[in-house]
Amino acid sequence: MAFELGLDGLIAVVTGAGGGIGRATSLALGQAGVRVLLVDKEKSSLKETQLAVTTGGGEAESIVADVTRAEEVSGYVDAATSKFGGIDIFFNNAGIEGVVANLVEYPVDVFDAVLAVNLRGVFLGLRYVLPVMIAQGSGSIINTSSLAGERGLPGTVAYNAAKHGVQGLTRTAAAEVASAGVRVNAVCPGFVDTRMLHSLVSSMTPGEVEEGLATFAASSPGGRLGTAEEIAAVVCFLASPVASYVNGACWPVDGGILATISTPR
Hints:
- By secondary structure, the protein is of the alpha/beta class.
- It is 46% helix and 15% strand.
- It is built from eight helices and seven strands.
- The longest helix has 29 residues, at 108-136.
- It is globular.
- The model has no long low-confidence stretch (mean pLDDT 94).
């Protein structure tokens, strides 16, 4: 049986749309016929994503917003409803990596900043998007968690804690709004070849980035890093009517890392 995702004509909001997984997902949604409101704090990268979506034949608008500020989150939600008339899909994706340091040395201000974006930002997105979806009786939200939301990752205490929290938000929201016709899920990317991973690796193994990336790649049974486009494909599935009975799930997209016990190669 062949499946069509059935995304054509829907309306999406994507946060963290300026790069990596956010950009790849924005492009995939645009190519599927979704009208997309792109949200990011960085204006230049945001405009690059908008140009890429429109050049590829999609329809996109953009708004600069800080996901940690309630008034700016409310603003991007208002922009989506005024420009497009509603929100069918919300990819609640914005995140930062922070620094690499052991917990006892981790800077308190950086811890607060990472939780503000990666956890508070996700909460605020849910807080302001859900009323729109509840009122229209439909919608799909996909939060971005991580492999670090399932396991401890030394040196990344703030990122790790936030991504665990995103899974709690996902499950709680899913339980609360399912009866209103709204689904809430999360993706848990593994080691994906993005700027963020390169930044983390350069901090963990200064001067040996390629060797560090190879080590991360080897942790997957397939022996490679993932791509942003592979994460985007799963987000599009979860956003679609095809996934209508998928709710409250935190989907690993990690090449099998969580499914295996690592052994020497």
